[in-house]
Amino acid sequence: MNYTTLGSLKDKLWITDTSSDSKLLLIIEEATKLIDRKIGYNLEKKDILQRIDGTWTNKLFLEHKANEIIYIKNKNNNYFYTLDYIDNYIVYLEEKAQKWSKNIEISYSIWFDTVPADIESICMELAVSLSLDLWIKWANSEKFENKNIKNQKLWSLSVTYFSNDEKDSYIKDRFNIAIKENFDMIISKYKSFKWII
Question: Which residues have a Cβ under 8 Å from the Cβ of 144 and sit 6 or more positions away?
Answer without folding.
Answer: 137, 161, 162, 163, 164
